[in-house]
């Protein structure tokens, strides 16, 4: 028996039943598990209908219009625009759209879809709404599963079939009366995923015939997981069964419409496409009834991150999100795939380290290939895609708190303040950052990190700056024999005096002058670089020094100045002051 220490029977699980085998009729020869998605399906946003019907405050015409314009600008070609028989607001929006289309304000390749139940009066109203549209799809739906048939409709299979056929025939007559209007048909057996597959097939094939679908004027059969009930493989089997068995397959667009009750809407849609679906309905960022419709943004960007053209434009994902949040009056979660505020951000040390290394490697690879970083293949750990591709900057990628390590801190100092700390100093500084963030319990911003670094390592040796050693003045020159000479006025504690030193470079001459003042310094490590931020022409120097002889403290000091030599002298003075060993 599998080890399981948890308490049995805590929840009344016996009230629920697993999905019924009769809804899954595909035998073991399914082909979807080994398929791959190599091109994008037709994405059809239903935000203005299914998303809208889930809002506490349905969209008015202004909000619907803003949403519609966004969808067009992103590249959607077929857009469900409403349930015109539901309300005056929905009807009026479709009329508004007809005006836009007729005035040429909507591109010719956009096809609006309108949604209707199988009721003649409501079908009439639906057709009234699209009068004047040169192209449209009318989407008919009726629930088909046993529970809905018995409990909601009070009709058996034959009666549901009769209702559907009457409604479909009525639609065909209304469309025939508008020959100039290029109206196509769509059918959704609502609750498809809990309906007997043979019944769905019977209904769909009946409509394919009744509407006389052809490859030139295909019918869309839209098979929803109205309420998710099973693992995504079951839905995939159901879709593959329909894909294989639908009549006049070349005259049928097989569409899916997953919801997200089990949190697997995206998985259902992806497996359904593997199983033969050609069209996917969903909403941006997954708005929709209950836990939402499947999220088209995630689906499309999942493809993108696999090197497949998503056929949609997400190059400014924050602008997309802003419009959707405005129209839905619902926020997008900070952890929402691809679009959340935090999804490109790493707080944790090892992730930051890997990302910082990955970004550096990426820049190097681009340089080697002679291409812009935006063109180079993407291979950065922990970032499934380049944030820049969706309009995000790298600024938010690394953020520092007490979970962070040296890599992230160093990355921020380098990218935001132009300070490229040597490896050992990174570890040293990281401990100071950890102490500060542990104490505050807060995140440290790049500016706060910079300030912390300056306070900790730049102890410049000016009177009043807090160090025991003050460098009051200094000059360096070269003696006739080539040796470097440094002359300086130092204040050590409360004693001031002039000192002179010699060496093979100006820094060693300064160290020699310090020795003359009684301060023993060995420079163990030294590095310097130009500061590459803020348009300054400063230099930074870092020195790891043993101060106070063989048994003295080993400490880092740093200096920043417009003169490289001054920065290096400051770095040594800072180290002395940090060691507190002068005098
Ligand atoms: C899964 C989905 O997303 S389905 C779409 C759901 N969306 C919406 O409902 C939003 C818009 N709907 C509405 O505004 C209203 O429901 C209206 C205007 C369409 C109809 O309103 P009403 O006539 O008051 O009916 P009501 O909303 O109570 O719907 C229930 C009736 O419709 C029947 N019904 C439900 N679905 C359908 C359907 N697809 N086709 C035909 N009849 C249906 C029910 O059996 C019930 O009939 P009954 O009154 O004989 O028992
Ligand atoms: C009727 C279909 C398309 C639907 O909205 C659903 O099942 O959720």
How far apart are the termini? 73 Å
> What is the CATH superfamily of the largest domain?
Aldolase class I
Bound molecules: acetyl coenzyme *A, 3-methyl-2-oxobutanoic acid
Low-confidence stretches: none
CATH names the topology of the largest domain as TIM Barrel
The average pLDDT score comes to 95
Number of structural domains: 4
- SS-derived structural category: alpha/beta
For the secondary structure, the number of strands is: 14
- What oligomeric arrangement do these chains adopt? single chain
CATH class of the largest domain: Alpha Beta
- Report helical residue fraction: 25-40%
**What's the CATH architecture of the largest domain?**
Alpha-Beta Barrel
Summarize the structure in words.
This protein is α/β, with parallel strands linked by helices and 583 residues long. The protein folds into 4 domains: 37-328, TIM Barrel; 349-390, Helix Hairpins; 406-459, Arc Repressor Mutant; 465-581, Double Stranded RNA Binding Domain (2-Layer Sandwich). Helices cover 38% and strands 18% of the residues. It is built from 17 helices and 14 strands. The chain has helices at 47-51, 61-74, 88-102, 120-130, 146-153, 157-176, 197-210, 232-245, 265-274, 296-304, 317-328, 349-369, 406-417, 423-440, 446-457, 506-516, 564-579; strands spanning 42-45, 78-82, 111-117, 136-143, 183-190, 219-225, 252-258, 279-282, 469-478, 484-492, 495-503, 521-530, 539-547, 553-561. It has an 8-stranded parallel beta sheet with strand order 1-8-7-6-5-4-3-2. Helix 13 (406-417) crosses helix 15 (446-457). It is elongated. The mean pLDDT is 95. This is 2-isopropylmalate synthase.
């Amino acid at each position: 028996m599998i080890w399981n220490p948890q308490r049995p029977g805590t929840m009344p699980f016996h009230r629920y039943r697993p999905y019924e085998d009769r809804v899954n009729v595909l035998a073991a020869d399914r082909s979807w598990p080994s398929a791959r998605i190599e091109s994008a399906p037709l994405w059809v946003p239903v935000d203005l209908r299914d998303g809208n019907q889930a809002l506490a405050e349905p969209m008015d015409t202004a909000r619907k219009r803003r949403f519609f314009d966004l969808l067009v600008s992103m590249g959607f070609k077929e857009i469900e625009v409403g349930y015109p028989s539901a309300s005056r607001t929905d009807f009026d929006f479709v009329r508004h759209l007809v005006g836009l289309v007729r005035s040429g304000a909507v591109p010719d390749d956009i096809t609006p879809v309108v949604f209707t139940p199988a009721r003649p009066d409501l079908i009439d109203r639906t057709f009234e709404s699209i009068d004047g549209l040169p192209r449209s799809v009318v989407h008919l739906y009726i629930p088909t599963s046993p529970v809905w048939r018995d409990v909601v409709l009070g009709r058996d299979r034959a009666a549901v079939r009769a209702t559907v056929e009457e409604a479909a025939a009525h639609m065909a007559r209304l469309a025939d009366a508008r020959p100039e209007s290029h109206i196509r048909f769509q059918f959704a057996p609502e609750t498809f995923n809990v309906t007997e597959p043979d019944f769905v097939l019977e209904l769909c094939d009946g409509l394919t015939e009744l509407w006389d679908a052809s490859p030139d004027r295909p019918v869309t059969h839209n098979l929803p997981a109205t309420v998710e009930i099973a693992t995504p493989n079951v839905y995939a089997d159901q879709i593959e069964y329909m894909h294989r068995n639908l009549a006049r397959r070349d005259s049928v667009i097989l569409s899916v419409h997953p919801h997200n009750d089990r949190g697997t809407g995206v998985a259902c849609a992806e497996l359904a496409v593997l199983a033969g679906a050609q069209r996917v309905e969903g909403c941006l960022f997954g708005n929709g009834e209950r836990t939402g419709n499947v999220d088209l943004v995630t689906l499309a960007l999942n493809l993108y991150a696999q090197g497949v053209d998503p056929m949609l434009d997400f190059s400014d994902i924050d602008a997309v999100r802003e419009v959707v949040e405005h129209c839905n009056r619902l926020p997008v979660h900070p952890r929402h795939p691809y679009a959340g505020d935090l999804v490109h951000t790493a707080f944790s040390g090892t992730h930051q380290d890997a990302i910082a290394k990955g970004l550096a490697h990426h820049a190097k690879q681009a340089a080697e290939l002679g291409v812009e970083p935006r063109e180079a293949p993407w291979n950065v750990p922990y970032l499934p895609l380049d944030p820049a591709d969706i309009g995000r900057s790298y600024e938010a990628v690394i953020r520092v708190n007490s979970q962070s390590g040296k890599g992230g801190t160093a990355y921020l100092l380098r990218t935001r303040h132009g300070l490229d700390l040597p490896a050992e100093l990174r570890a040293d500084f990281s401990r100071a950052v950890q102490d500060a963030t542990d104490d505050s319990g807060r995140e440290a911003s790049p500016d706060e990190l910079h300030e912390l670094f300056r306070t900790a390592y730049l102890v410049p040796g000016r009177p009043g700056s807090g160090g025991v050693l003050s460098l009051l003045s200094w000059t360096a020159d070269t003696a006739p024999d080539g040796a470097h000479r440094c002359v300086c006025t130092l204040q050590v504690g409360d004693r001031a005096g002039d000192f002179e030193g010699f060496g093979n470079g100006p820094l060693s001459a300064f160290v020699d002058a310090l020795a003359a003042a009684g301060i023993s310094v060995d420079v163990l490590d030294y590095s310097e670089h130009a500061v590459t931020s803020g348009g300054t022409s400063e230099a930074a120097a870092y020195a790891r020094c043993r101060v106070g002889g063989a048994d003295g403290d080993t400490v880092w000091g740093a200096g920043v100045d417009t003169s490289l030599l001054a920065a290096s002298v400051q770095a040594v003075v800072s180290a002395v002051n940090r060691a507190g060993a002068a005098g």
